[in-house]
């Protein structure tokens, strides 16, 4: 619970830090502290200390996830934005399989904690490999640093930069926007408020269904380690399929349909245990179908969210959405306790969240074929254009 509470708060704080100090600095600092805290936890002598450190680890870990994700989609453009954003989630699927095997071999939790924490030291090498996000630097008005990164990329790829690109990167007098931003900017315009509130519901729904299945595999029935491996295995093709779906079908409809399908699968699994006791294989199959579908939703959702916000506030937007996701995470451990009231309640809640969350997606605009916006002013101009078109119609 403390870890999940840290995740809920950390997503928002890391978003603010990342938008202020940069993606790279936030990411690498988070990787360092995540590794350090993980090692310290393995040697924690008191439960109270373990309790506090787990909260701190959750706070830092979500910063690694979101800072790295936003950096990955801002380093590329066009269709590669989709490929980079979705591929970023492949290691998550592999980690479920790996940790299930490690947990089976290392039955001592301290050894397991060390085994999953120490490899983080390797990733500190990325400080000398990863560039800062050119989009973020450009939004901050740091054009010279953008030119340096582009020149290195051109040299590496054996390409020549376009003539006068340095002048093309210079902001227009009316477009300079380097003022500080904060969470309240997510509610600055009517369209921004609409996007933000809908995303809160969507993130809550996806995380409740996703982790309601992932963290309660033992309650579904069958062997916990086998279920964990199956859970990771079905996510790999789901993430891969998401790339093809997004390249061909955009973001909006694929996210809505995968969320709804996940809810329907949970709804179909709900009555089986009430009617028959010898159909555990069918319940597990439907749970894995729901897991497959919601895994695709979980891959699409961050990309869609990041594209809905301008660069200058993108990490804050993703982090703020994670607050509602964090609330869902804190509720997940208690979800299956509701089965004491009635066996069908947990799956009913997951089914309802999947369907309602999917419906909310349909109220958001498509982003797949549109270029990323960089400033809040661009967002305001789009909102004004939408309002003008609505008035004319």
Number of domains: 1
Count of helix runs: 18
The proportion of strand residues reads: under 5%
- Give the overall silhouette: globular
Q: Outline the low-pLDDT stretches.
A: none
From the 3D structure, determine the CATH topology.
Answer: Growth Hormone, Chain: A
Q: Give the class-level CATH name.
A: Mainly Alpha
The count of strands amounts to 0
Radius of gyration: 22 Å
Alpha-beta content class? mainly alpha
The CATH superfamily label reads MFS general substrate transporter like domains
Give the termini distance in whole angstroms. 50 Å
Mean pLDDT: 83
Please give the largest β-sheet.
none
The helicity comes to over 70%
Secondary-structure element pattern, one letter each: HHHHHHHHHHHHHHHHHH
CATH architecture: Up-down Bundle
Question: How would you sum up this structure, described in words?
Answer:
- With 393 residues, the protein is mostly helical.
- The protein has a single domain (2-133, 180-378), classed as Growth Hormone, Chain: A, CATH 1.20.1250.20.
- Helices cover 74% and strands 0% of the residues.
- It is built from 18 helices and no strands.
- It is globular and about 70 Å long.
- The model has no long low-confidence stretch (mean pLDDT 83).
